[in-house]
Design a protein that fits this description.
Layout (H helix, E strand, L loop, with lengths): L7 E2 L2 E2 L3 H7 L5 H15 E2 L2 E2 L3 H11 L8 H17 L14 H10 L3 H6 L1 H17 L1 H11 L5 H15 L9
Antiparallel strand pairs: 1-2, 3-4
Helix pairs in contact: 1-2, 3-4, 3-8, 4-8, 4-9, 8-9
Amino acid sequence: MTEYGALLHAYGLAVDTPGHLAALVGEDPVARRSAIEQLWSAIIHQGTPWTATPPVALDVAALLADPRVTDPSLRAELLNFLAAVAEAGSITTRDLSLPDFDVDAALAQALADGDEEGIWEDERLQGALYVRAVLGCRQIVPALLDTATAAVSDPSPQVQAAAVHTIGACSGVAPLAWRS
């Protein structure tokens, strides 16, 4: 079980994320729409990944196998989200080396101090968290690719198209596990 309270999305701690994930399979269409908006606005904000992005993407990939997720529009939307996550893992315009300080300790200290704003003000910590998010997206590409490949056989052309798009996005990423 992912501890989302220790992860960040674009608007702060990802404590609201489990509720949004649950709404994706719930009966309330308004809550479902809000959950989809949360994926796009907080979890992969304008293409930027956050530390919550990789675990959320894995949860979304699992939801695509959930028998309650039958609506082709929802399935296609979730696949498109996974494509965006894969694309976030392909970022190469920045040095993606891990920093030489204890990121977890710095984050824990800021949270223990109740200084969530301090996370955003500390450029070194912010940069390290960004690198961690991008590398996390790269690491999960094989799982995203498996999910998209399974969805290609979906009876809905809309879902098939989204699956192919996601496969293409995954192919543009060299996951860490595949690097020499």
